Each structure stands twice: as C-alpha cells, then as structure tokens.
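Fold this sequence, please.
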Amino acid sequence: MKMPHRLPDQLRENLRVVFVGTAASTRSAAVGHYYAHPGNRFWRALFEAGITPRRYQPGEFAALLEFGIGFTDLSKSGAGMDHQIARQSFDVAGFRAKIEKYRPKTIAFTSKKAASLFYGKPSSTIALGRQPADGPFPDVFVLASPSGAASGHWTLQPWRELAAWIAA
C-alpha cells in the first residue's frame, strides 16, 4: 500500500532553487508546512542569507514559488527524525525523475544526511557548500541542517554561498 504524501511537492519548471530535505518532521507532517518546528532555523536562514526579502512563516511556503523557490523531500511518506524514517521510504530515483522533469537551476540539500542519501556515501565525506558538477544534473549545494537537533553543527555560511550563487 502506498503511503500518503506528508507534504506536497512545491515544484514547477525552471525554479532558481529547490530545497530538498530528508523527510517531513513530525510537526511539519502534522501541520502540512515545510520546516514548521519552532526550533528549525530554515525560515530565519533564508532571510538572513538574503534568499528572501523578509522572514516568511512555515505556512507561507507556497508563496515562495513566486521567487523561484521550490520544495521536496527524499521521503514523501516518512515523518520524524532521520533515524526514525524507514530506509526504504527514501526514493532517490523518484527525486531524480522530478528534477529531470522540472529542471531547476540549483538543488539545495538542507542537510548532509539528505545529500548522503542522494550520493550514496557517508555524510562524513560530504562537504558543505557547492558540490562538484554531476553532468547535466543541476548545480548542487549542501547546507548546514537548520534543524534544532543539529544546532551544534550550525553555520549560515553555505546558505550565504547559495544566496550569492542563485542571485548571480
């Protein structure tokens, strides 16, 4: 039986950037908004890095399409912390198909964990920031996780690099 999507994709053709998480948090799944937990730095980081003109609230995520900003997750059925999500719910092939269909200019993984699932290698081997080019695939950035659970590893710098890249 196919599980329902926890959060709808916010995708269309030619977006400037698509933010890609592992899966919805328990809070995001409950309210139906991306990065909805009060301790999550996502919305503050977008504003502080200069990606959005003001600090948006999680319930306004759909409005970011007008700025060329989209959202998706590698698991559309799982919810919770990464270690709570069934490994088989991560759909890297499905994610790649969405990216090939919509062709955004840039992909931004919102954690090393999401990038490690995509690349199939340990998160310890993945650097923050822009990644080496992968053929015709869009440019990829790996951002410091905005999750409150990852606060010990927080840095706004790769978010600022992304802002400069997508503004160019």
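The first helix runs from residue 26 to 31. The chain is about 25% helix and 10% strand.
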